[in-house]
Q: What sequence folds into this?
């Protein structure tokens, strides 16, 4: 009686393999590595900022972390995860341990000392991967864990070595990275202050701006994205929605502050957003599996990045937003499953739009709110310009009714203040006149908020004080912006 | 003997029972603070276990908790006053964490779980074991945090008024890797505690998995 | 449309046809679908004619089982069924006389009333011949208005060409039957679904379809699982349903089932034989064979030339995607078995760690999440939210997984977990 073996189907399998998918990612990184070599090695060498060692230093910098992560994972898999011989080889082939190392090298500043680089790689593998059970079980992106550790523990050390700028940039640009620059500018900035110091927006797109070793070039990241989407390796919805959300939110913020389309383009091209969105956020192990979950994840990342960039003192928010959303992937997948139903999908879209509104509103109030709210008791009656003077007729509510004055302002200073009519109680107003409060107001006009009122005629004198303050504010808003 | 060993390993209050983590995270910035806090907690623990165990038969269940807290608060206040008069520097270093020993879950927890149910001898031994476990845990954490975080180790500083010595040593020569300043911050405390807890429990269980 | 273009491997058996109708003994398996609750109507020693009812399924979904030869009931034996289980069978010895109960005369097939129609196809024992094994008469036994009849000639699994063979040979009969069914049941129109690249079958139908105004041919893309009811209905009508297509007024029938209905309506002949594709690289001459129900397959394989070797092979009942391996080739032909595929035994892939790439979620035609089911296949509470029972076990999740994890098996285990504590 013939006996045939049994096997579990299906008996046709696709040609997909984990190791080949990881290989495609490494392949997509090659142009970025080459560009980094050009920008940090060849350009400074050609301009005589570094010697021959400095020419090849970026390659050394990029080569070390993968080697360290590979070794650490090998040792860790043997001891902690108890994988032996064949199992170990299969595991290492699929886990592609050089990938977190490569990413780590590309997102750290060029002047990170080598010893810190090595320690960071070890921490990235141990705390980012092995502690959770090895490849496939980690919650956080290991390269980002490594970077977080290096930046938190050694920010000062790196800064003393000149931080992000390579030797050529220090000489010619001598400023900080574009987003640190944006943070130090007051208000929202203009094209002159944000983009001009680094050239024009093409420089941002190609990547010849200061930044970490490999995350500046948006053009090469897009090539990598197209290649990996063609090969069906990455979850393409995540970068599309991430970058789209950041673009949309910064566009709204820019438009409501009078900045045109260059502003959102500037925002998405700086801070390593493209690199983070295309390579770090799409790490398969730490991102959602469902289609709608990926959309929610990308949008959430965009919202968080915008919040971190504008409302905190960290210059760029990509790292922290990806790590935060990594924590929430479990919930995001559940939400994604619920959103298969049409009503739930619409509710989710509505929630996102409400969040967009809240975020843009909060950020805008930070920029356009220049201090006090408009005084409801203050009325601007007339305004006329005579030469280089502006004569206002204004009214402020006093004790017995409105006090109407004529205020003359020249070059930002009140040069004449005349009370036209008032309804104050004569006894109290007499005190104001006795103190010669009008002249005191004009003399102390730079320090009005702290100025004392006349004791015994508080309300009247306070009304006069507020009148002058509000008029000056009117003048500032119209003539000095 | 077994009870003491139990307190150090199987029921280590910091790594296994996860009690009293508030003062653990805050105090362990210097090695000296760690062992001093450990000694204080151990003394309070032993004495409170002794007293609770002695009077356990006469306290009705409904007023157990307030009575025990009263006892512990009294002991802590006594300790506070003693420290204030004889070791002023130590008192200042501890700050708010000295009165917080009253609500340190270890002491109340052991009083309710062990001292109110077992004999005087066993309670004292349990107190010794738990206290010892706490002290050792704190010393390990503080050692790592201080050595890696500020490149020193403080054996005797605040209590130099009693002993007359001062012993602060630098460990590593000047280099870029150490000190890792963020280990002194609370974030570093959580990180160190978490990793040590993982290592401790892994060794304790010896690779056996616990099934749910 | 969600689906994968698989390597078809149909050339080796296409346009090859033969008949095997001289089995020494037949074994009628006492099973309908998964149900073994069958009443036996004969005893040892009885003489049965070809087409005589020998057993009947109990319950409300009753349907009779017929003998496919004339001969004597020798006894009852356990034989291998294509589901992998051993099933009790009625063993009948063939007297090779092909005697039937009554003379078969031809009748005009569109003159039946709806009730007569349902009775005829019920008594002919017709079940879904595409593999589902569902009694066909139940689909028509509805008060609802049926808008469209979809005739499924897609045959999306690789290697199988049984539907193609019957389609090519019996075009006129099939068209006549479809027309009759439309008239009897007052159905508005019918659609024959054929794959875009199946040019011979398309041409065969397109040349003869001229006179039938209510029947259209729809070309479907060459994707697996286009032949699954839900995907097909969604592609053709754009609508989807919850559990049964009758909810949106649609009835789907396999094309081989339509021919069986023809035999029953026209000649009163019950379902006693079917075309099975016996194919695979390890056969000397892969072909389609018309076999009587109850014939052991090993006889047929020997009759068509046998296998190239008998060691290190896999004997699969069904197609390579949804079929299962059998321990030997002594399996009995039933009405819902459409192929036997003999492949070379290759070493199975080692399962790696799941990298959560999400490809299985993207490809699943039932739109569930196989990877999440795999994560909690033993946890009944978590499974309740994951709609595990929507899985049709098409095998695409295991097919596409880069880590070579057998995801479908985890989903099957999850279904077990849900069934266990009921």
A:
């Amino acid at each position: 009686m013939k006996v045939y073996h049994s096997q579990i189907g299906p008996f046709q399998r696709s040609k997909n393999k984990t190791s080949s998918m990881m290989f495609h990612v490494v392949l997509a990184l090659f142009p970025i590595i080459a560009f980094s070599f050009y920008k940090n090695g060849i350009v400074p060498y050609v301009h005589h900022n570094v010697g021959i060692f400095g020419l090849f230093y970026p390659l050394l910098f990029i080569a070390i972390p993968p080697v360290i992560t590979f070794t650490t994972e090998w040792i860790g898999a043997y001891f902690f995860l108890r994988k032996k011989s064949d199992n170990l080889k299969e595991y290492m082939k699929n886990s592609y341990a050089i990938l977190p190392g490569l990413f780590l090298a590309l997102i750290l500043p060029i002047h990170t000392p080598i010893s810190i680089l090595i320690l960071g790689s070890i921490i990235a593998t141990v705390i980012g991967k092995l502690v959770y059970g090895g490849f496939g079980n980690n919650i956080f992106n290991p390269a980002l864990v490594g970077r977080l550790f290096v930046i938190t523990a050694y920010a000062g050390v790196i800064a003393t070595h000149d931080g992000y700028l390579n030797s050529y940039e220090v000489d010619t640009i001598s400023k900080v990275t574009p987003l640190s620059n944006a943070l130090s500018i007051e208000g929202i900035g203009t094209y002159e202050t944000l983009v001009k110091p680094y050239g024009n927006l093409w420089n941002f797109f190609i990547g010849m701006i200061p930044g970490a070793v490999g995350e500046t070039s948006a053009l090469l990241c897009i090539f990598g994205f197209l290649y990996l989407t063609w090969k069906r390796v990455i979850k393409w919805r995540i970068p599309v929605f991430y970058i789209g959300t950041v673009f949309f939110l910064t566009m709204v913020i820019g438009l409501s502050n009078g900045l045109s389309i260059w502003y959102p383009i500037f925002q998405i091209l700086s801070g390593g957003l493209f690199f983070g969105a295309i390579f770090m956020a799409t790490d398969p192990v730490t991102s959602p599996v469902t289609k709608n979950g990926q959309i929610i994840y990308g949008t959430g990342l965009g919202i968080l990045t915008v919040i971190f960039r504008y409302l905190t003192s960290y210059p760029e928010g990509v790292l922290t937003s990806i790590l935060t959303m990594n924590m929430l992937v479990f919930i995001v997948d559940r939400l994604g499953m619920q959103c298969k139903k049409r009503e739930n999908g619409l509710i989710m879209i509505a929630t996102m739009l409400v969040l967009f509104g809240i975020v843009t509103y909060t950020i805008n109030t930070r920029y356009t709110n220049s201090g006090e709210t408009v005084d409801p008791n203050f009325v601007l009656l007339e305004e006329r310009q005579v030469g280089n003077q502006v004569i206002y007729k204004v009214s402020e509510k006093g004790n017995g009714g409105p006090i109407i004055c004529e205020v003359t302002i020249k070059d930002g200073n009140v040069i004449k203040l005349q009370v036209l009519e008032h309804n104050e109680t004569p006894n109290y107003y007499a005190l104001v006149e006795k103190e010669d409060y009008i002249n005191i107001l004009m003399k102390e006009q730079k320090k009005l908020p702290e100025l004392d009122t006349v004791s015994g005629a508080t309300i009247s004198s306070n009304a006069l004080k507020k009148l002058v303050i509000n008029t000056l504010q009117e003048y500032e808003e119209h003539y000095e912006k | 003997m077994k009870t003491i060993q139990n307190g150090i390993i199987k029921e280590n209050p910091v790594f296994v029972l996860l009690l009293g983590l508030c003062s653990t995270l805050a105090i362990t910035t210097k090695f000296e603070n760690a062992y001093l806090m450990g000694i204080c907690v151990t003394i309070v623990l032993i004495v409170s276990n002794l007293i609770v165990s002695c009077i356990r038969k006469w306290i009705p269940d409904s007023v157990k908790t307030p009575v025990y807290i009263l006892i512990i608060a009294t002991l802590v206040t006594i300790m506070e006053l003693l420290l204030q008069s004889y070791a002023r520097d130590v008192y200042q270093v501890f700050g708010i964490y000295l009165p917080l020993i009253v609500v340190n879950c270890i002491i109340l927890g052991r009083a309710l779980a062990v001292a109110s149910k077992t004999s005087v001898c066993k309670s004292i031994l349990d107190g010794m074991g738990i206290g010892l476990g706490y002290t050792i845990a704190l010393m390990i954490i503080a050692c790592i945090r201080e050595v890696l975080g500020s490149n020193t180790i403080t054996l005797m500083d605040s209590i130099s008024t009693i002993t007359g010595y001062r012993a602060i040593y630098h460990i590593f020569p000047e280099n870029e890797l150490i000190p890792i300043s963020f280990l002194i911050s609370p974030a570093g405390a959580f990180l160190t505690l978490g990793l040590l807890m993982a290592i401790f429990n892994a060794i304790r269980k010896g690779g056996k998995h616990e099934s749910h | 449309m969600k689906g994968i273009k698989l390597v078809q491997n149909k050339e080796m058996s296409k346009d090859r046809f033969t008949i095997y109708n001289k089995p020494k003994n037949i074994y009628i398996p006492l099973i309908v679908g998964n149900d073994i609750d069958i009443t036996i109507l004969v005893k040892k020693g009885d003489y049965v004619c070809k087409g005589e009812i020998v057993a009947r399924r109990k319950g409300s979904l009753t349907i009779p089982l017929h003998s496919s030869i004339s001969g004597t009931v020798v006894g009852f034996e356990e034989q291998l069924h294509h589901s992998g289980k051993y099933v009790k069978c009625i063993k009948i010895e063939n007297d090779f006389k092909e005697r039937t109960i009554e003379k078969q005369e031809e009748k005009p097939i569109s003159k039946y009333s709806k009730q007569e129609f349902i009775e005829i196809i019920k008594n002919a024992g017709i079940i879904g011949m595409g593999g589902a094994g569902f009694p066909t008469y139940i689909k028509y036994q509805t008060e609802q208005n049926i808008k469209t009849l979809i005739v499924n000639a897609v045959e999306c699994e690789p290697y199988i060409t049984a539907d193609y063979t019957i389609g090519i040979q019996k075009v006129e009969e099939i068209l006549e039957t479809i027309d009759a069914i439309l008239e009897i049941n007052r159905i508005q129109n019918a659609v024959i679904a054929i794959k875009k690249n199946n040019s011979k079958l398309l041409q065969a139908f397109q040349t003869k379809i001229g006179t039938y105004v209510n029947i259209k041919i729809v070309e479907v893309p060459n994707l697996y699982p286009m032949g699954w009811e839900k995907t097909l209905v969604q592609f053709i009508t754009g609508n989807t349903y919850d559990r049964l297509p009758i909810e949106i007024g649609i009835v789907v029938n396999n094309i081989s089932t339509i021919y069986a209905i023809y035999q029953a309506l026209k000649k009163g002949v019950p379902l006693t034989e079917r075309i099975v594709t016996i194919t695979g690289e390890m056969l000397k001459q892969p072909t389609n064979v018309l076999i009587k129900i109850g014939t052991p397959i090993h006889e047929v394989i020997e009759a068509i030339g046998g296998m190239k070797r008998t060691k290190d092979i896999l004997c699969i009942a069904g197609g390579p995607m949804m079929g299962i391996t059998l321990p030997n080739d002594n399996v009995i032909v039933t009405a819902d078995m459409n192929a036997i595929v003999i492949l070379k035994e290759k070493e199975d892939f080692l399962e790696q760690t799941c990298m959560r790439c999400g490809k299985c979620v993207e490809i699943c035609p039932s739109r569930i999440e196989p990877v999440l089911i795999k994560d909690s296949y033993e946890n009944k509470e978590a499974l309740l939210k994951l709609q595990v029972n929507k899985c049709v076990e098409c095998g695409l999740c295991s097919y596409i997984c880069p880590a070579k994890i057998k995801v479908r098996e985890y989903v099957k285990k999850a279904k077990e977990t849900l069934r266990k504590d009921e």
